[in-house]
Design a protein that fits this description.
Chain B: Keywords: ATP-binding, Cell inner membrane, Cell membrane, Membrane, Nucleotide-binding, Transport. Chain B: It holds the Pfam family OB_MalK. Chain B: This is ABC transporter domain-containing protein. Chain B: Belongs to the ABC transporter superfamily. Chain B: One of its GO terms (molecular function) is ATP hydrolysis activity. The complex is a heterodimer of chains A (282) and B (362). Helix content of chain A is 77%, strand content 0%. Chain A is an all-alpha fold. Chain A has a single domain, classed as MetI-like fold. With 362 residues, chain B is α+β, with helices and mostly antiparallel strands. Chain B has 2 domains: 225 residues, P-loop containing nucleotide triphosphate hydrolases (Rossmann fold, 3-Layer(aba) Sandwich), CATH 3.40.50; 121 residues, Beta Barrel (OB fold (Dihydrolipoamide Acetyltransferase, E2P)). Chain B contains 9 helices and 21 strands. The longest helix of chain B is centred in the middle third of the chain and has 18 residues. Chain B is elongated. The chains are: A mainly alpha (282), B alpha+beta (362). At the A-B interface, helix 8 and helix 9 of A face strand 6 and helix 2 of B.
């Protein structure tokens, strides 16, 4: 029986409401970003600026020494380097780790997995002091490497867990078939397991990039100038001056969202195709 | 293609002996079927040969070469899995070509070989499809094609037809028989289906609890089972057994008191087990010469055969109901009393208290 008209309307209304709840803050951020700062402080509040301006974007994107644009552009660069490096390293290590947890026998292996997850659950606050001392001793404070290492320690357990649960759903015969066909274990993973797990791999990459892109706490503590400050810290800096320029902050927020959105756009196909082919059994 | 020999192969899983010293040699080009009840170790034995499991003891030779220390990928043995285990993200052509790719063959070499196999198995029109676009039978053929690709020494098949419906199973069985004939490939085939075993095998290996009970041609096993287990396992419906005793003349006597005219003297007053297959019982006249009498409990008409269950009402309760298989349509009715005799004295099988066959010789 096709759904009744009332039901259809209810479903669409629900979906629209959900979309609004998610989209409205972003829309408001965008409106703020194209308003002048005087405009944002006038009362009563206006929903749409009289004279929309791209001035905020201009002052962030056109490079000038000792300006917000300098710290913003450097921060974008730092964030991209750190997020990609941390994600790349974590995924490269998580794949063999997840495969081993999922496929190879041994009680020790399972305990190790639980230990990793338990440590993952520790709040950053508990770890930040010892980590700071270590980084300081190694002379790594205020470098990309410090944050890459710390982010790897967050991403690796997460990605391992995510991939392991996906590998678990792949029938064991699909491990053994390539080995019978003359592949070694690594080739079996590369040619058979990873392509089948591609959607999970895509999700792990997406989530890892997002986690490191959004990370603030370690970024704030381990960096102190434009050489290594990440985008979240740079945006916070914009708010920390004598006068908070909300228009500028909003524009920075919108721009900071662009790289993850672009990434999601390109990975969308992988994620969706995975939903469709996941049901295929060997 | 190559011969294979197993000597005293054992396998222990966490203290439990699963394979208890198997000796077996399989000739080049032979199709050998492993049968046995579930849990008998037939699939484990196949996995030991493939290298997917390591043996706990003994030796495996492929031709002249000892292979039990080699990894599965180095043994040059192909395997068809029960689940097919096709690579879901690859096309049919890529699935078949995968072993060649792993062997480092050139692109043109791979294409040539996959086309050749595609022609043999009539898969060419499906070459660009992925496994999910194929029917069960087509998937099965792709799995076989992938096993053939490398021209392996041995092809192992682990219950390859059990996921197919009955009609398709018969077709694929004949196709496998044809492939084996044409390719002269050495094959080891695991199944629990007797019909597959009897029709495909050059030789059948009957396993129980990790031990080889008998190795022989299908008719050997049918006509001369070496023990009571094999006698009961091969043949459908299973053989009827009775405990018999010997009278003072040394003749075998059924619990019903009927003496059997058998040229067999098992020795002084020893109880033995006698067996006769359901298809070797025939209707007899009601003149007192019949070997068995019974009341019909159930009748199943298959057209080609009539399966009848009889209650004979003597001896051990477990032995008093017997199966009979008549050829063609036989007009017996439920509750009717029928007389049976055994077609030929050769149809009797006699086993001692240990279950071992006693040859019916004077």
């Amino acid at each position: 029986m096709p759904p009744s008209l009332a039901k259809k309307i209810a479903i669409y209304l629900g979906a629209a409401l959900l979309a609004l709840v998610i989209a409205l803050p972003v829309l408001w951020l965008f409106i703020m970003s194209i308003s002048s700062s005087t405009h944002l402080t006038t009362l009563p509040l206006q929903w749409w600026p009289d004279s929309p301006t791209l001035e905020n974007y201009r002052s962030l994107l056109i490079y000038a020494e000792n300006s917000p644009s300098q710290s913003f552009l450097y921060a974008i660069r730092n964030s991209i380097i750190i997020a990609l490096a941390a994600t790349g390293l974590s995924i490269c290590a998580a794949i063999p780790a997840a495969y081993s947890f999922s496929r190879l026998p041994g009680p020790g292996r399972k305990n190790l997995l639980y230990a990793v997850i338990a440590i993952f659950m520790l709040p950053p606050v508990a770890l930040v002091l010892p980590l700071y001392t270590v980084m300081s001793a190694l002379g790594l404070l205020n470098t990309h490497v410090a944050l890459i290492i710390v982010y790897c320690s967050i991403l690796l357990p997460f990605a391992t867990w995510l991939l392991k649960s996906n590998f678990d759903t792949i029938p064991g015969d699909l491990d053994e078939a390539p080995i019978i066909d003359g592949a070694n274990r690594l080739q079996a993973i590369w040619y058979v397991i990873l392509p089948i797990a591609r959607p999970a791999l895509g999700a792990a990459v997406m989530m890892s990039v997002l986690l490191s892109w959004d990370e603030f706490f370690y970024g704030l503590l381990f960096t102190n100038d434009i050489r290594s400050k990440t985008i979240t810290v740079a945006i916070a800096d914009l708010a920390a001056g004598r006068v908070a320029d909300y228009g500028l902050i909003s524009a920075a927020g919108i721009l900071a969202a662009v790289p993850p959105v672009v990434l999601a756009f390109f990975m969308q196909k992988t994620l969706v195709s995975g939903l469709a082919s996941g049901s295929v059994k060997g | 293609m190559s011969s294979i020999s197993l000597s005293n192969v054992t396998k222990t899983f966490g203290g439990a002996d699963v394979i208890k010293g198997v000796d077996l040699s399989i000739e080049d080009g032979e199709l050998v079927v492993f049968v046995g009840p579930s849990g008998c170790g037939k699939s484990t034995l196949l996995r030991l040969i493939s290298g997917l499991e390591e043996i706990s003891g003994g030796e495996i030779h492929l031709g002249e070469k000892r292979v039990d220390h080699l990894s599965a990928s180095a043994r040059d043995i192909a395997m068809v899995f029960q689940s097919y285990a096709l690579y879901p993200h690859m096309t049919v052509a890529d699935n078949i070509g995968f072993p060649l790719k792993m062997a480092g063959k050139s692109k043109t070499g791979i294409e040539e070989k996959t086309r050749e196999i595609g022609t043999i198995l009539q898969l060419l029109p499906l070459f660009d499809r992925t496994p999910k676009q194929l029917s069960g039978g087509q998937r099965q053929r792709v799995a076989i094609g992938r096993a053939l690709a490398r021209d392996p020494q041995i092809i192992l098949l682990d219950e390859p037809l059990s996921n197919l419906d009955a009609a398709l199973r018969v077709d694929m069985r004949m196709e496998l028989a044809r492939l084996h004939r044409d390719l002269k490939a050495t094959m080891i085939y695991v199944t629990h289906d007797q019909v597959e075993a009897m029709t495909l095998a050059d030789r059948i290996v009957v396993l129980r609890d990790g031990i080889v009970e008998q190795v022989g041609s299908p008719l050997d096993l049918y006509l001369k089972p070496v023990n009571q287990f094999v006698a009961g396992f091969i043949g459908s419906p299973r053989m009827n057994f009775w405990t018999a005793t010997t009278n003072e003349n040394g003749d075998l006597v059924l619990p019903s008191g009927v003496a059997l005219p058998l040229p067999c003297k098992p020795g002084a007053l020893q109880p033995v087990t006698v067996g006769v297959r359901p298809e070797h019982l025939v209707l007899a006249a009601d003149d007192g010469t019949a070997t068995l009498q019974g009341t019909v409990l159930s009748v199943e008409h298959l057209g080609s055969d009539t399966f009848v269950q009889l209650h004979c009402g003597f001896g051990d309760p477990a032995q008093s109901d017997i199966n009979v298989r008549f050829g063609g349509i036989v007009p017996v009715r439920m509750g009717e009393r029928v007389n049976l005799s055994v077609a030929s004295p050769d149809n009797w099988h006699i086993f001692d208290t240990e279950g071992l066959r006693i040859e019916a010789s004077a």
